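FAQ

Q: What does a record look like?
A: Structure on top, sequence underneath. For example:
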């Protein structure tokens, strides 16, 4: 590996848009929709490279990478094993929130880390449960990276 000649500028925080969390149309807000989204901010690292990430401040961090060296390191972990399907995709990983799927022939790592704002809001009726939150992320973000529900 060689160091890059230049670095992308740091992304700026912005308000979460209705119906477009992390810039992805249809992605569910990781918290109480009626109270949390109105004041929530997000920071999206949306470069043209093989890695994408988004932090919804205090609620969750979403990440996707197709970087082969990162995928190789993840897959070499002794805890890496087949997992239950996520959003219809056959996956392997550490648990159902940190998985690798075959997306149009490219191994793709998808993960969601939830934060205090999300866990504190789980008792609110308009907060998605963790399984629905993750399935939604894999479905919506997966489409951007060529994932489909065909068995891999």
């Amino acid at each position: 590996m060689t160091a890059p000649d230049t670095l992308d500028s740091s992304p700026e925080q912005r308000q979460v848009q209705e119906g477009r969390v992390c810039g992805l149309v249809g992605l569910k807000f990781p918290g109480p929709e009626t109270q949390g989204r109105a004041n929530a901010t997000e920071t999206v690292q949306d470069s043209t490279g093989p890695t994408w990430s988004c932090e919804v401040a205090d609620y969750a961090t979403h990440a996707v990478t197709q970087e082969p060296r990162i995928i190789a390191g993840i897959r070499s972990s002794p805890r890496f094993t087949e997992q239950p399907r996520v959003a219809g995709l056959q996956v392997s990983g550490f648990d159902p929130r940190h998985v690798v799927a075959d997306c149009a022939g490219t191994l793709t790592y998808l993960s969601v880390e939830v934060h205090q704002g999300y866990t504190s809001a789980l008792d609110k009726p308009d907060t998605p449960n963790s399984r629905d939150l993750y399935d939604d992320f894999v479905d919506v973000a997966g489409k951007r990276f060529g994932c489909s529900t065909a068995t891999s």
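Q: Is there anything notable about this one?
A: The radius of gyration is 16 Å.
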